[in-house]
Design goal:
The chain has 365 residues and is of the alpha/beta class. It has helices at 3-14, 19-28, 34-37, 51-54, 56-73, 89-98, 102-106, 117-124, 187-195, 210-222, 237-240, 277-286, 297-303, 306-314, 320-337; strands spanning 17-18, 78-83, 108-113, 132-134, 143-150, 159-163, 167-174, 178-184, 205-208, 223-235, 251-254, 257-259, 270-272, 275-276, 290-296, 342-349. The strands form 3 sheets. Strands 2, 3, 4, 5, 10, 14, 15 and 16 form an 8-stranded mixed sheet that branches. Strands 1, 6, 7, 8 and 9 form a 5-stranded antiparallel sheet that branches. It has a 3-stranded antiparallel sheet with strand order 12-11-13. Helix 8 links the parallel strand 3 and strand 4. Helix 5 (56-73) crosses helix 6 (89-98) and helix 10 crosses helix 12. 43% of the residues are buried.
Length: 365
């Protein structure tokens, strides 16, 4: 049965479902979800790029930042816990670079939490044999090191709300096709906006990512000492609720085309929404995480030596013209196309407020 038919049958039997439930099934349904069945979703032939699959320079620079974190913590044992490792490219590139530091590498533990069986199989083909796989951070706790995620939180299923006379939540019904209806929003959704001092004007539609605040709370609780590095696209509250965002930020990606057609290509397209970094900072602080810095990807990579690292990696390219073309393309995508859209939030727990090289420039603070 097609996923769209299965969801329609669920609605027929149980009644309308929240958009969050609909999105969860579209992305993570065990039999037909996008991330559980689409093995070619990432890359030139897929639906979107990630920084990690574009070039190993991204992983090399993250390795440089991780190496500094290990040094600042002053302890030999260091765990890197990567959430949502996807195809495994980032893990592979980080570990390849950290091999050049024998003292760190000998005491390095690299753990991955990836809930998609398909992605686990894909990543398992390219990552180091030393990588450990887990279903939950509670299996690894306590963690001493860095919890890392790249393009994870934007794929959490979100609630969609619309401000009328009161806050309403968008539900999904089926009447000769998928359609939307409004029901009064629950207390959790109202409390989220209140906590962030957000007063939505009438007619304003937005997303609320409750899973994100649950996630950062769980991460903080299991991190004994170290850092949380979250790389994703999004904004702070001060920008997310401007008039230009009155229709929300949720978008669909299908074969490198972007749309807001949520009810087409069900189970065959990516669905993502902006990460609210103010929410991650606020709820992280509730659980003992201190925000060390928020910057954009362009500044972060530049501060870590992007130009030098890229030129060094391309120096072995026999064709000078080809090397130059690759350098321009990678630089354009990582620093320009993704550079301002993607943010890097680093939080710390039980670590000194030492300088981190990637945060030399923090225009977002």
């Amino acid at each position: 049965m097609k996923l769209s038919d299965d969801i329609a049958a669920q609605i027929h039997q149980q009644g309308p479902i929240s958009f969050r439930q609909f999105m969860e099934r579209c992305l993570y349904d065990s039999d037909n979800g996008y991330y559980t069945t689409k093995c070619s979703s990432i890359g030139a032939e897929g639906d979107f790029y990630t920084s990690a699959t574009l070039s190993p320079v991204f992983g090399a620079l993250l390795a440089k930042q991780l190496e500094q974190m290990w040094s600042l913590m002053g302890c030999p044992e260091f765990t890197i816990l990567e959430y949502g490792a996807g195809t495994g490219h980032l893990c592979r590139d980080i570990m390849t670079c950290l091999e050049s530091n024998p003292a760190l590498y000998a005491n390095l533990r690299y753990c991955i939490i990836e809930k998609s069986p398909l992605m686990r199989r894909l990543a398992g083909n390219i990552v180091n044999d030393r990588v450990e796989w887990y279903d939950s951070i509670s299996e690894i706790s306590p963690v001493h090191g860095c919890v890392l995620s790249n393009e994870l939180v934007d794929n959490f299923a979100v609630h969609r709300v619309l401000m009328k006379k009161e806050l309403m939540e968008i539900f999904v019904d089926y009447q000769d096709g998928f359609c939307e209806l409004l029901l009064p929003a629950g207390p959790e959704l109202k409390a989220y906006l209140s906590e962030l001092s957000i007063d939505l004007p009438k007619g304003f539609t937005t997303e609320i990512n409750l899973e994100a605040i649950d996630w950062i709370g769980q991460v903080a609780s299991c991190l004994e000492s170290g850092y949380v590095m979250t790389i994703d696209y999004g904004q702070q509250s001060s920008m997310m609720y401007q008039p230009c965002r009155s229709q929300g930020s949720l978008l669909c990606y299908h074969k490198h085309s972007v749309s807001d057609s949520f009810y087409e290509h069900i189970g065959e397209q990516d669905m993502t929404s902006f990460v609210n970094f103010s929410a991650l900072s606020r709820w992280g602080a509730r659980h003992g995480l201190r925000t060390l810095g928020l910057t954009d990807q362009a500044h972060f990579l530049t501060c870590l030596g992007f130009r030098e690292q890229l030129l060094n990696m391309l120096s072995c390219e026999p064709d000078v013209v080809t090397a130059a073309q690759k350098a321009v393309r990678v630089g354009r995508i990582l620093l320009m196309d993704m550079g301002s859209k993607y943010k890097v939030l680093i939080q710390g727990k039980n670590v000194a407020q030492n300088h981190l090289s990637g945060l030399d420039i923090c225009p977002e603070i």
